[in-house]
User: Fold this.
Amino acid sequence: MTKLVWDQSGLRGFEIGVTKAVLYPVGSSPLVWNGLLSVKDNSVGGKSTSYFIDGQRFMTDISPEAFTAGVEAYIYPDALTQGPFGMTYVTQLGNDLDGTAHGYQIHLLYNVLASYSEKNYQSSGSKSETTTFGWDLATTPVKIDGMFPTAHLIIDSTKTRPGLLADFEAILYGTAGTAPRLPTPAETIFFFDDWCIVRITDNGDGTWTATGPDSIITMLDANNFQIAYETAIFVDADNYTISSY
Amino acid sequence: MTQLVWRVAGDRRFEAGLDRGVLYPPTGNGVVWNGLTSVKENSPGGDVTSYYMDGVRYLNIVGFEEFDAVLEGFSCPDEFLDLQGMPSNGKGLFFTAQPHKPFGLSYRTGLGNDLVGVDYGYKLHVVYNAISESAGKSYETMGDSPSPIKSTWNIATVPVAITGRRPTAHLIIDSTKASLAAMTAVENILYGTAGTNPRIPTVVELLALLV
Assistant:
Protein backbone atom coordinates (compact mmCIF):
# COMPACT_ATOMS: atom_id res chain seq x y z
CA MET A 1 0.00 0.00 0.00
CA THR A 2 1.14 3.52 -0.66
CA LYS A 3 0.80 6.59 1.47
CA LEU A 4 1.45 9.74 -0.53
CA VAL A 5 4.56 11.76 0.28
CA TRP A 6 5.22 15.12 -1.35
CA ASP A 7 8.47 16.71 -2.52
CA GLN A 8 10.73 13.73 -1.95
CA SER A 9 14.37 14.23 -2.77
CA GLY A 10 15.08 13.58 -6.44
CA LEU A 11 11.44 14.01 -7.45
CA ARG A 12 11.39 17.80 -7.64
CA GLY A 13 11.68 17.98 -11.39
CA PHE A 14 11.72 20.82 -13.90
CA GLU A 15 12.43 21.53 -17.55
CA ILE A 16 14.93 24.03 -18.83
CA GLY A 17 16.81 25.11 -21.95
CA VAL A 18 16.86 24.17 -25.61
CA THR A 19 19.91 22.96 -27.49
CA LYS A 20 21.29 20.58 -30.16
CA ALA A 21 18.96 21.52 -33.01
CA VAL A 22 19.33 19.63 -36.29
CA LEU A 23 17.52 20.20 -39.58
CA TYR A 24 16.83 17.21 -41.85
CA PRO A 25 15.93 18.64 -45.28
CA VAL A 26 14.18 16.25 -47.67
CA GLY A 27 16.68 15.07 -50.27
CA SER A 28 19.80 16.63 -48.79
CA SER A 29 22.18 16.20 -45.89
CA PRO A 30 21.19 17.10 -42.31
CA LEU A 31 22.52 20.37 -40.92
CA VAL A 32 23.31 21.48 -37.41
CA TRP A 33 21.26 24.56 -36.52
CA ASN A 34 23.62 26.72 -34.48
CA GLY A 35 22.20 29.86 -32.92
CA LEU A 36 18.74 28.55 -32.06
CA LEU A 37 17.52 30.61 -29.10
CA SER A 38 14.02 29.38 -28.37
CA VAL A 39 11.24 27.04 -29.41
CA LYS A 40 7.76 28.04 -28.31
CA ASP A 41 5.30 25.17 -28.68
CA ASN A 42 2.00 26.81 -29.61
CA SER A 43 0.24 23.83 -31.14
CA VAL A 44 -3.18 24.41 -32.63
CA GLY A 45 -6.15 22.40 -31.38
CA GLY A 46 -6.19 20.51 -28.11
CA LYS A 47 -8.80 22.93 -26.77
CA SER A 48 -11.96 21.98 -24.93
CA THR A 49 -15.50 22.46 -26.19
CA SER A 50 -18.31 22.01 -23.69
CA TYR A 51 -21.81 20.78 -24.49
CA PHE A 52 -24.75 21.56 -22.20
CA ILE A 53 -28.05 19.94 -21.36
CA ASP A 54 -30.60 21.46 -18.96
CA GLY A 55 -28.19 24.24 -18.12
CA GLN A 56 -25.45 21.84 -16.99
CA ARG A 57 -22.23 20.89 -18.68
CA PHE A 58 -22.90 17.43 -20.09
CA MET A 59 -19.57 16.63 -21.69
CA THR A 60 -16.29 18.24 -22.67
CA ASP A 61 -14.54 17.33 -25.89
CA ILE A 62 -10.89 18.03 -26.75
CA SER A 63 -10.22 18.94 -30.40
CA PRO A 64 -7.49 17.19 -32.46
CA GLU A 65 -4.04 18.75 -32.23
CA ALA A 66 -1.36 19.70 -34.73
CA PHE A 67 2.11 20.81 -33.71
CA THR A 68 3.07 24.39 -34.55
CA ALA A 69 5.81 26.43 -32.95
CA GLY A 70 7.53 29.77 -33.01
CA VAL A 71 11.32 29.69 -33.08
CA GLU A 72 13.86 32.42 -32.62
CA ALA A 73 17.50 32.27 -33.70
CA TYR A 74 20.60 34.35 -34.36
CA ILE A 75 21.29 32.49 -37.58
CA TYR A 76 19.58 29.80 -39.56
CA PRO A 77 20.42 27.24 -42.25
CA ASP A 78 19.36 28.17 -45.79
CA ALA A 79 17.50 24.88 -46.00
CA LEU A 80 14.93 26.33 -43.61
CA THR A 81 13.31 28.15 -46.50
CA GLN A 82 13.58 25.41 -49.07
CA GLY A 83 10.61 23.16 -48.50
CA PRO A 84 9.55 20.57 -45.99
CA PHE A 85 12.07 19.21 -43.55
CA GLY A 86 12.39 17.24 -40.37
CA MET A 87 13.89 18.68 -37.25
CA THR A 88 15.16 17.59 -33.86
CA TYR A 89 16.04 19.60 -30.80
CA VAL A 90 16.87 18.76 -27.20
CA THR A 91 15.32 20.23 -24.06
CA GLN A 92 16.86 19.56 -20.68
CA LEU A 93 15.36 17.96 -17.58
CA GLY A 94 16.50 18.90 -14.11
CA ASN A 95 15.76 17.93 -10.54
CA ASP A 96 16.79 18.93 -7.05
CA LEU A 97 19.64 16.42 -6.91
CA ASP A 98 21.21 16.60 -10.36
CA GLY A 99 20.46 20.23 -11.21
CA THR A 100 20.12 20.79 -14.95
CA ALA A 101 21.98 17.56 -15.75
CA HIS A 102 19.24 15.12 -14.72
CA GLY A 103 18.35 14.17 -18.28
CA TYR A 104 16.93 15.50 -21.52
CA GLN A 105 14.18 15.08 -24.07
CA ILE A 106 14.81 14.73 -27.78
CA HIS A 107 11.97 16.23 -29.81
CA LEU A 108 11.45 14.75 -33.29
CA LEU A 109 9.45 16.87 -35.74
CA TYR A 110 8.21 15.63 -39.12
CA ASN A 111 6.82 17.38 -42.23
CA VAL A 112 7.79 20.85 -41.08
CA LEU A 113 7.36 24.04 -43.11
CA ALA A 114 8.83 27.33 -41.94
CA SER A 115 7.73 30.88 -42.65
CA TYR A 116 9.30 34.16 -41.52
CA SER A 117 7.54 35.76 -38.62
CA GLU A 118 10.09 38.43 -37.81
CA LYS A 119 13.32 39.96 -39.07
CA ASN A 120 14.61 42.66 -36.86
CA TYR A 121 17.43 44.62 -38.57
CA GLN A 122 18.54 47.81 -36.87
CA SER A 123 21.22 50.38 -37.55
CA SER A 124 24.18 49.89 -35.23
CA GLY A 125 24.26 52.46 -32.46
CA SER A 126 26.87 53.07 -29.79
CA LYS A 127 26.30 49.46 -28.76
CA SER A 128 25.90 46.91 -31.50
CA GLU A 129 23.02 44.51 -30.94
CA THR A 130 22.72 41.13 -32.56
CA THR A 131 19.89 40.63 -35.02
CA THR A 132 17.49 37.81 -34.25
CA PHE A 133 15.17 36.07 -36.67
CA GLY A 134 11.75 34.67 -35.90
CA TRP A 135 10.11 31.78 -37.69
CA ASP A 136 6.76 30.03 -37.50
CA LEU A 137 6.90 26.27 -37.90
CA ALA A 138 3.85 24.33 -39.07
CA THR A 139 3.67 20.55 -39.37
CA THR A 140 1.54 17.96 -41.11
CA PRO A 141 0.83 14.97 -38.84
CA VAL A 142 2.06 11.55 -39.91
CA LYS A 143 -0.15 8.45 -39.73
CA ILE A 144 0.93 5.99 -37.05
CA ASP A 145 -0.62 2.55 -36.68
CA GLY A 146 -2.83 2.33 -33.63
CA MET A 147 -2.37 5.99 -32.68
CA PHE A 148 -3.72 9.37 -33.73
CA PRO A 149 -1.55 11.02 -36.40
CA THR A 150 1.17 13.24 -34.99
CA ALA A 151 4.21 15.15 -36.26
CA HIS A 152 5.91 15.38 -32.87
CA LEU A 153 7.50 12.51 -30.98
CA ILE A 154 9.45 12.92 -27.75
CA ILE A 155 12.16 10.68 -26.33
CA ASP A 156 12.85 11.01 -22.61
CA SER A 157 16.40 10.03 -21.64
CA THR A 158 15.38 9.33 -18.04
CA LYS A 159 12.93 6.65 -19.20
CA THR A 160 14.98 5.12 -22.03
CA ARG A 161 17.55 2.38 -21.56
CA PRO A 162 21.02 3.91 -22.04
CA GLY A 163 22.10 1.50 -24.79
CA LEU A 164 18.91 2.09 -26.76
CA LEU A 165 19.30 5.85 -26.44
CA ALA A 166 22.94 5.76 -27.55
CA ASP A 167 22.06 3.63 -30.59
CA PHE A 168 19.17 5.92 -31.53
CA GLU A 169 21.29 9.04 -31.15
CA ALA A 170 23.89 7.43 -33.40
CA ILE A 171 21.17 7.35 -36.08
CA LEU A 172 20.03 10.93 -35.46
CA TYR A 173 23.47 12.51 -35.19
CA GLY A 174 25.59 10.08 -37.22
CA THR A 175 28.83 8.34 -36.36
CA ALA A 176 32.31 8.17 -37.86
CA GLY A 177 30.96 5.60 -40.30
CA THR A 178 27.30 6.59 -40.83
CA ALA A 179 25.57 9.77 -41.92
CA PRO A 180 22.98 11.35 -39.61
CA ARG A 181 19.34 10.91 -40.58
CA LEU A 182 15.86 11.24 -39.11
CA PRO A 183 14.10 7.86 -38.92
CA THR A 184 10.41 7.84 -39.84
CA PRO A 185 7.91 7.54 -36.96
CA ALA A 186 7.23 3.90 -37.92
CA GLU A 187 10.96 3.17 -37.95
CA THR A 188 11.40 4.92 -34.61
CA ILE A 189 8.59 2.94 -32.97
CA PHE A 190 9.95 -0.33 -34.38
CA PHE A 191 13.45 0.57 -33.19
CA PHE A 192 12.23 1.22 -29.64
CA ASP A 193 10.06 -1.90 -29.54
CA ASP A 194 12.65 -4.19 -31.13
CA TRP A 195 15.82 -3.01 -29.44
CA CYS A 196 17.18 -5.48 -26.92
CA ILE A 197 20.45 -6.81 -25.56
CA VAL A 198 19.34 -10.41 -25.30
CA ARG A 199 17.05 -11.60 -28.13
CA ILE A 200 14.86 -14.66 -27.60
CA THR A 201 13.65 -16.30 -30.83
CA ASP A 202 10.88 -18.92 -30.80
CA ASN A 203 12.01 -21.58 -33.27
CA GLY A 204 8.46 -22.89 -33.62
CA ASP A 205 9.39 -26.48 -32.82
CA GLY A 206 9.32 -26.32 -29.04
CA THR A 207 12.82 -24.89 -28.84
CA TRP A 208 14.07 -21.33 -28.60
CA THR A 209 17.30 -19.54 -29.30
CA ALA A 210 18.91 -16.86 -27.14
CA THR A 211 21.29 -14.41 -28.82
CA GLY A 212 23.35 -11.92 -26.88
CA PRO A 213 26.79 -10.90 -25.65
CA ASP A 214 29.17 -13.57 -24.29
CA SER A 215 29.26 -11.69 -21.01
CA ILE A 216 25.57 -12.47 -20.51
CA ILE A 217 25.07 -15.87 -22.14
CA THR A 218 27.60 -18.48 -21.03
CA MET A 219 27.85 -22.25 -21.44
CA LEU A 220 28.31 -23.85 -18.01
CA ASP A 221 29.12 -27.23 -19.58
CA ALA A 222 28.30 -29.07 -22.81
CA ASN A 223 24.55 -29.24 -22.01
CA ASN A 224 23.81 -26.36 -19.63
CA PHE A 225 23.89 -22.64 -20.18
CA GLN A 226 23.25 -19.54 -18.14
CA ILE A 227 21.62 -16.24 -19.12
CA ALA A 228 22.53 -13.63 -16.56
CA TYR A 229 19.98 -10.97 -17.53
CA GLU A 230 16.41 -9.82 -16.91
CA THR A 231 14.82 -12.03 -19.54
CA ALA A 232 12.78 -14.47 -17.42
CA ILE A 233 9.65 -13.92 -15.36
CA PHE A 234 8.78 -16.86 -13.13
CA VAL A 235 5.20 -18.10 -13.42
CA ASP A 236 5.71 -20.50 -10.49
CA ALA A 237 8.62 -22.42 -8.95
CA ASP A 238 9.16 -24.59 -12.03
CA ASN A 239 7.88 -22.50 -14.95
CA TYR A 240 8.92 -19.19 -16.39
CA THR A 241 8.27 -16.94 -19.36
CA ILE A 242 11.32 -15.78 -21.25
CA SER A 243 11.37 -12.81 -23.63
CA SER A 244 13.77 -10.46 -25.36
CA TYR A 245 15.09 -7.65 -23.22
CA MET B 1 -28.97 41.16 21.58
CA THR B 2 -25.72 41.34 19.65
CA GLN B 3 -23.78 44.49 18.99
CA LEU B 4 -21.48 44.24 16.02
CA VAL B 5 -17.75 44.47 16.75
CA TRP B 6 -15.13 44.66 14.06
CA ARG B 7 -11.63 43.16 14.01
CA VAL B 8 -11.94 40.89 17.01
CA ALA B 9 -8.68 39.00 17.64
CA GLY B 10 -8.72 35.73 15.70
CA ASP B 11 -11.39 36.95 13.25
CA ARG B 12 -8.97 38.63 10.85
CA ARG B 13 -8.76 35.76 8.43
CA PHE B 14 -7.13 35.26 5.07
CA GLU B 15 -6.25 32.55 2.58
CA ALA B 16 -2.69 31.79 1.48
CA GLY B 17 -0.70 29.10 -0.24
CA LEU B 18 -1.22 25.89 -2.12
CA ASP B 19 0.21 22.46 -1.43
CA ARG B 20 -0.44 18.71 -1.47
CA GLY B 21 -1.51 18.40 -5.10
CA VAL B 22 -2.65 14.89 -5.98
CA LEU B 23 -3.65 13.51 -9.37
CA TYR B 24 -6.18 10.66 -9.55
CA PRO B 25 -5.96 8.85 -12.92
CA PRO B 26 -9.13 7.01 -14.05
CA THR B 27 -7.45 3.74 -13.09
CA GLY B 28 -4.81 3.11 -10.46
CA ASN B 29 -3.86 4.99 -7.35
CA GLY B 30 -3.58 8.70 -6.70
CA VAL B 31 -0.10 10.10 -7.31
CA VAL B 32 1.68 13.07 -5.81
CA TRP B 33 1.90 16.17 -8.01
CA ASN B 34 5.26 17.65 -7.08
CA GLY B 35 6.03 21.05 -8.54
CA LEU B 36 2.43 22.32 -8.69
CA THR B 37 2.82 26.03 -8.01
CA SER B 38 -0.64 27.50 -8.60
CA VAL B 39 -4.26 26.69 -9.28
CA LYS B 40 -6.24 29.57 -10.71
CA GLU B 41 -9.94 28.87 -10.49
CA ASN B 42 -11.69 30.68 -13.30
CA SER B 43 -15.05 29.00 -13.41
CA PRO B 44 -17.32 30.15 -16.22
CA GLY B 45 -20.94 31.05 -15.48
CA GLY B 46 -22.22 32.58 -12.28
CA ASP B 47 -22.64 35.92 -14.02
CA VAL B 48 -25.67 38.06 -13.37
CA THR B 49 -27.87 38.94 -16.32
CA SER B 50 -30.30 41.79 -15.70
CA TYR B 51 -33.69 42.19 -17.41
CA TYR B 52 -35.50 45.52 -17.63
CA MET B 53 -39.06 46.67 -17.96
CA ASP B 54 -40.12 50.26 -18.41
CA GLY B 55 -36.48 51.30 -17.93
CA VAL B 56 -36.26 49.72 -14.48
CA ARG B 57 -34.36 46.57 -13.59
CA TYR B 58 -37.05 43.94 -13.32
CA LEU B 59 -35.11 40.73 -12.67
CA ASN B 60 -31.58 39.43 -12.10
CA ILE B 61 -30.75 35.87 -13.10
CA VAL B 62 -27.47 34.21 -12.15
CA GLY B 63 -26.07 31.84 -14.79
CA PHE B 64 -25.18 28.26 -13.93
CA GLU B 65 -21.60 27.79 -12.82
CA GLU B 66 -19.01 25.26 -13.97
CA PHE B 67 -15.57 24.65 -12.54
CA ASP B 68 -12.58 25.37 -14.79
CA ALA B 69 -9.05 26.14 -13.67
CA VAL B 70 -5.54 26.88 -14.85
CA LEU B 71 -2.83 24.80 -13.21
CA GLU B 72 0.75 25.98 -13.28
CA GLY B 73 3.83 24.06 -12.26
CA PHE B 74 7.43 23.13 -12.84
CA SER B 75 6.55 19.50 -13.50
CA CYS B 76 3.68 17.06 -13.61
CA PRO B 77 3.36 13.39 -12.66
CA ASP B 78 4.30 10.89 -15.37
CA GLU B 79 0.72 9.62 -15.22
CA PHE B 80 -0.54 13.07 -16.29
CA LEU B 81 1.31 12.89 -19.61
CA ASP B 82 -0.94 10.07 -20.79
CA LEU B 83 -4.04 11.94 -19.56
CA GLN B 84 -3.14 15.04 -21.55
CA GLY B 85 -2.64 13.15 -24.79
CA MET B 86 1.02 12.15 -24.56
CA PRO B 87 1.18 8.39 -23.89
CA SER B 88 4.41 6.44 -23.92
CA ASN B 89 5.30 3.04 -25.36
CA GLY B 90 6.80 2.24 -21.94
CA LYS B 91 10.35 2.50 -23.27
CA GLY B 92 10.88 6.25 -23.27
CA LEU B 93 9.16 7.16 -26.56
CA PHE B 94 6.21 9.58 -26.20
CA PHE B 95 3.48 10.29 -28.78
CA THR B 96 1.93 13.76 -28.81
CA ALA B 97 -1.55 14.76 -30.06
CA GLN B 98 -3.29 11.65 -28.72
CA PRO B 99 -6.74 11.53 -27.07
CA HIS B 100 -7.07 13.18 -23.66
CA LYS B 101 -8.53 11.30 -20.67
CA PRO B 102 -10.49 12.47 -17.60
CA PHE B 103 -9.00 12.51 -14.12
CA GLY B 104 -9.60 13.67 -10.57
CA LEU B 105 -7.55 16.15 -8.61
CA SER B 106 -7.14 17.32 -5.05
CA TYR B 107 -5.12 20.14 -3.57
CA ARG B 108 -4.94 22.04 -0.32
CA THR B 109 -5.09 25.80 0.20
CA GLY B 110 -4.10 27.44 3.45
CA LEU B 111 -6.23 29.47 5.87
CA GLY B 112 -4.68 32.01 8.18
CA ASN B 113 -5.70 34.47 10.85
CA ASP B 114 -4.12 37.20 12.91
CA LEU B 115 -3.40 34.92 15.88
CA VAL B 116 -1.71 31.85 14.38
CA GLY B 117 -0.74 33.13 10.95
CA VAL B 118 -0.89 30.65 8.07
CA ASP B 119 -1.36 27.65 10.38
CA TYR B 120 -4.96 28.47 11.23
CA GLY B 121 -6.36 25.75 8.97
CA TYR B 122 -6.76 24.70 5.36
CA LYS B 123 -9.26 23.82 2.68
CA LEU B 124 -9.19 20.52 0.87
CA HIS B 125 -10.33 20.92 -2.72
CA VAL B 126 -11.58 17.79 -4.49
CA VAL B 127 -12.16 18.05 -8.24
CA TYR B 128 -14.03 15.43 -10.28
CA ASN B 129 -14.24 14.64 -14.01
CA ALA B 130 -11.52 17.03 -15.11
CA ILE B 131 -9.95 17.01 -18.56
CA SER B 132 -6.86 18.95 -19.58
CA GLU B 133 -6.40 21.03 -22.71
CA SER B 134 -3.03 20.89 -24.43
CA ALA B 135 -0.31 22.92 -22.80
CA GLY B 136 2.02 25.12 -24.78
CA LYS B 137 5.62 25.32 -23.65
CA SER B 138 8.32 27.83 -24.33
CA TYR B 139 11.85 26.47 -24.29
CA GLU B 140 14.69 28.98 -24.34
CA THR B 141 18.41 28.56 -24.54
CA MET B 142 20.05 28.86 -21.12
CA GLY B 143 21.70 32.17 -20.36
CA ASP B 144 23.96 33.08 -17.47
CA SER B 145 21.07 32.73 -15.01
CA PRO B 146 19.05 29.70 -16.07
CA SER B 147 15.46 29.56 -14.91
CA PRO B 148 13.11 26.54 -15.01
CA ILE B 149 10.21 26.50 -17.43
CA LYS B 150 6.74 26.76 -15.94
CA SER B 151 4.00 24.86 -17.72
CA THR B 152 0.33 25.74 -17.62
CA TRP B 153 -2.59 23.39 -18.05
CA ASN B 154 -6.16 24.53 -18.59
CA ILE B 155 -8.65 22.09 -17.16
CA ALA B 156 -12.42 21.84 -17.64
CA THR B 157 -14.77 19.67 -15.62
CA VAL B 158 -18.12 17.95 -15.97
CA PRO B 159 -20.21 18.21 -12.78
CA VAL B 160 -21.27 15.22 -10.71
CA ALA B 161 -24.87 14.71 -9.57
CA ILE B 162 -25.46 15.33 -5.85
CA THR B 163 -28.76 14.52 -4.20
CA GLY B 164 -30.53 17.68 -3.08
CA ARG B 165 -27.95 20.01 -4.66
CA ARG B 166 -27.07 21.30 -8.07
CA PRO B 167 -24.42 19.14 -9.76
CA THR B 168 -20.85 20.28 -9.18
CA ALA B 169 -17.34 19.02 -9.95
CA HIS B 170 -15.64 20.91 -7.12
CA LEU B 171 -16.11 20.18 -3.42
CA ILE B 172 -14.29 22.05 -0.65
CA ILE B 173 -13.74 20.77 2.88
CA ASP B 174 -12.78 23.39 5.47
CA SER B 175 -10.60 22.03 8.30
CA THR B 176 -11.77 24.82 10.63
CA LYS B 177 -15.36 23.70 10.26
CA ALA B 178 -15.15 19.91 9.88
CA SER B 179 -14.33 17.66 12.82
CA LEU B 180 -10.80 16.35 13.22
CA ALA B 181 -12.10 12.78 12.86
CA ALA B 182 -13.85 13.62 9.59
CA MET B 183 -10.79 15.41 8.20
CA THR B 184 -8.59 12.46 9.12
CA ALA B 185 -10.99 10.00 7.49
CA VAL B 186 -11.13 12.06 4.28
CA GLU B 187 -7.36 12.52 4.17
CA ASN B 188 -6.78 8.81 4.75
CA ILE B 189 -8.80 8.12 1.61
CA LEU B 190 -7.25 10.94 -0.44
CA TYR B 191 -3.64 10.36 0.61
CA GLY B 192 -3.64 6.67 1.56
CA THR B 193 -2.35 5.01 4.70
CA ALA B 194 0.05 2.21 5.53
CA GLY B 195 -2.79 -0.19 4.70
CA THR B 196 -4.77 1.57 1.94
CA ASN B 197 -3.90 3.13 -1.39
CA PRO B 198 -4.71 6.78 -2.13
CA ARG B 199 -7.88 7.28 -4.18
CA ILE B 200 -10.52 9.89 -4.84
CA PRO B 201 -13.69 9.19 -2.84
CA THR B 202 -17.09 9.42 -4.49
CA VAL B 203 -19.27 12.37 -3.58
CA VAL B 204 -21.59 10.05 -1.67
CA GLU B 205 -18.64 8.75 0.37
CA LEU B 206 -17.53 12.29 1.17
CA LEU B 207 -20.99 13.37 2.23
CA ALA B 208 -21.29 10.34 4.50
CA LEU B 209 -18.00 11.19 6.21
CA LEU B 210 -18.90 14.83 6.68
CA VAL B 211 -22.43 14.48 8.05
Q: What stands out?
A: The longest helix of chain B spans residues 180-191. The mean pLDDT of chain B is 94. Residues 13-134+146-209 of chain B form one domain. The first strand of chain B starts at residue 13 and ends at 24.
